[in-house]
Design brief:
With 92 residues, this protein is mostly helical. It has one domain. The protein has four helices and no strands. The radius of gyration is 14 Å and the shape is elongated.
Length: 92
């Protein structure tokens, strides 16, 4: 399951960056909100999958509450999931 979690973490991080640095500028600069709908929906689904897999991994891997909290909070910070993968999931 850890391999799936790492994959979802990577995709969730990429989707957040696409949403913030591609879709939002397209909406507000070029008045093209369709990109926010598409990328936003993908990001939302990946975010839900990330949190669900984090909860399952916490139970399976017996993570401390601090580690679990950092992993969850990282999902809302740009580049956060990349940091988590490097710092906390590299050897998992």
């Amino acid at each position: 399951m850890m391999k799936l979690f790492k994959t979802i973490a990577l995709l969730e991080g990429i989707s957040l960056l696409l949403l913030l640095f591609f879709a939002m500028p397209m909406k507000y600069i070029f008045d093209l909100p369709i990109y926010v709908r598409i990328v936003g929906m993908a990001h939302g689904l990946l975010f839900i999958a990330y949190i669900a897999l984090a909860i399952m991994s916490k139970v399976e891997e017996k993570w401390e509450i601090k580690k679990f909290a950092i992993i969850c909070v990282a999902s809302i910070i740009p580049f956060g999931t990349f940091y988590v993968e490097k710092k906390y999931l590299r050897h998992a």
